């Protein structure tokens, strides 16, 4: 599961690609709990990376999740309601996974062509 990702596109490139005005957020190491652009059904917003279940009374780090499993996201008590009704698109052009070994090394995944397009054509 991805724990870091990249967004190397400029504001102009994002606007052209998605047809909406997206804030400038060119970064090479976006991590959980950081603010990032997300495209929702009604607007483009800066959202904090993490997920708080509806039953959480306050934003505590101990309840914040950064990933959901594809196999259980539709049935899990924590994610089910948001999965059905609250979706967004998070622009990205690459992500990091950690290669095993000591010390662990990050490996950056992106399109094989080297193109930093957001969506393969």
Automatic annotation (TrEMBL):
Keywords, ordered alphabetically: Covalent protein-DNA linkage, DNA damage, DNA-binding, Hydrolase, Lyase, Protease
SUPFAM superfamilies in alphabetical order: BB1717-like (SSF143081)
GO biological process, one term: protein-DNA covalent cross-linking repair
Gene Ontology molecular-function annotations: lyase activity; peptidase activity; single-stranded DNA binding
Pfam families tied to this protein: SRAP
Keyword DNA damage recorded: yes
Enzyme Commission identifier(s): 3.4.-.-
Name of the top EC class for this enzyme: hydrolase
Keyword Ribosomal protein appears in the UniProt entry: no
Origin: domain of life: Bacteria
Family membership noted in the UniProt record: Belongs to the SOS response-associated peptidase family.
Protein name: Abasic site processing protein
